[in-house]
Amino acid sequence: MKKTRIKNFGNKGQVLILSYFVISAFLIFSAGLLIKAMSERSFAERQRLTAETFYLAEGATENAINTFSTNLANFVISPTISSYNVTTTYATKNNLAVTTTLTRLETNDRLIVENGTNIYACNYEVATTVTHPENSAISVTVHQIVARRLIPTFQHAVFYNNDLEILPGAAMTLSGKIHSNNDIYLDSDGNTLTINSSSLTSAANIYNKRKDSGITEGTTLISIYGSSPVTYAAMNGLDSSSPTWTTDATSRWGGTVQSSVHGVTEQTTPSVGSIASNGYYATNANVVITDTAIVKGGTALVEGVNYPKDTITTTTSLYNNREGKYVRASVVNLSKLSGTTGTCCSCAGTACASPASTCPCACPTPVACPNNMPSNGLLYATRTDASGSQEPGIELTNGSTINSSAGLTVVSNDPVYIKGDYNTAASKPTSIIADSLNLLSNNWNDSNSTKALSSRPATQTTFNCAFVAGIDTTTSGNYNGGLENYPRLHEGWSGINLNIVGSFVALWNSEVADGSWAYGSPYYSAPRRNWQYNTNFNNPANLPPFTPMAVEIRRIAWWKD
Q: What is the pTM of this model?
C-alpha cells in the first residue's frame, strides 16, 4: 500500500504564507484608506462648492435688496409693487446670472410713528436660488424677510445724504429731528450751537469739531431725550473719536444722539437725476414752464388768453457774485399764474385768429384769468437758452399767497431764486426742489446785484417752505458754508431776521451753481437765523405734494434651503 507523504515546508514556508497574509491585509487596508481619502476629498470639495454657492446666493440677495431700495427711492418702481425680480451677474463665474425675487407679504402698508415721524412699512420676502455652475447637483436657496420703510424726508428739520456740517458764527438754535447718511460735524465759531431734537442720528460718525480743520471753537448743546422741561448736555469733545462713545453718548443724552455704532443705518434717497428735464418730476408735473412757455396738462397755454401778460418774463440783469456769472432766468409771477392778479381776453365765443401778448380778438373783453396752478401740486420749470458766461435760473416772485388747494412743489434742474415773502398768507404745504436755493429779501432788486454790498440791504423776509437743494463738499481749507449757509444769500443781512419755517434737505451736490462759498463783500453778510422746523409736517396730510421719501430696509429674519 502506497503511503501519502506530507511535505514539511519548515519555517521558511510558514514565513512565506504569513507574508502573503500580511501583504493581502495591507492591500485591503490601503484600498480602504484610498477610498476613505477619496471620499473625504469628495466631501471637502462638495463642502467648498456648497459654501461658494451659498455666498453667491447671499451676495445676489444683498445686491437685490440694494437695487430694490434704490429704485424705490428714485421712482423707478412703485412702493406698492407686489413682486420684483433683480438679476445679478457674476463675471468671475462665467457670467453666471442669478435671479432674486422680492415678494410683498402685506396688502397695505403699516403706519408706524417713531419720535413723531410717520413711517410706512411693509414686509417683503426675498428669495434667491443658485445652482453652482461647476456642479448642477449643488443648489442653495437663501431667504430673507425685510421691512421696507418709507420715511418722508420733510419730517426732519435737517436731512442730509452727504456730510452734514453746522458751524454758525452767531449763536444759533435748531429744533427738530436731524439725520445724515454720512458724518455729522457740530460746533460753532466761538459761540453756542443749541440743538433741541428728539433724534440726532448719523449712519456714520458724529464729531464735535470743524471738518476742514479739526478745531473745536465753541459750545455745542444737545437736548437730553425726553427731558421736561428740556435740558441740555454739552458735547465737550465727546464724539465718535472717543473710546467710550458708544456708552457715553447714551448716558449723556439718553438716546437723542446715535451713530452707526448704535445701529443707525443709511436711508436711500432720490438722486439728482430725478430733477432732470426728463426725470421723474418733469414727467409727472401738471404744469411745465420751459423758458417763457407754459404747458398745462399737456396743452400749450396762450399768453393773454389763458394767462395774463408778463406772467413769465426773462431777466439777464441778475448777477450772482458767488458764481461770478449773470443769470438768465425765467421770472415766474405766481400771483399772475394763479389768476389772482391780471386779466385775460374773452371773445364771447368767437375764435381768436392768432395768439398775441395782448387781447388778440376783434371783440376783446377783459375777464379774470383761470388759476393755472398745477392740479396735482407739481410745477416743473427749466431754462434752456443760457449761454457763455450766463447761468440758467428760475426766479419766483409774488409768492406770499399760494393760491392752490393742493399746495405747491416747484422743481427745477436749475438754481431757484425766491424773491420776497413766500407762502406767508394762509400757509399751504409747499416745497422747492432744485439744483440750489437762493433767498432774496423783500428789498431785492435784480438791477442792484452788481453794486456794492452796501447797496443791497436786506429787509426782514419770511419763507414758509420745505427745501431740497444741492450743496458743495468741504475740502481742506475750503469750507462749504455748512447748514447755516444752505440757503445762498446775496444781500447785506447783518442784524436782519431771516425767518424760515420748513425743512432743509440736501440729497446731492449742485451741478449748475457749483461756485465755492464765500463770505463778506461783495457776496453777503449773515442774518439773524430765525429758523424752525414746520411741525405741521408731522401730519402726513400737511406734507407738500410729491414729498421725496427716504427708503430704509431692515432685516428681520433669514434662512436657507
A: 0.89
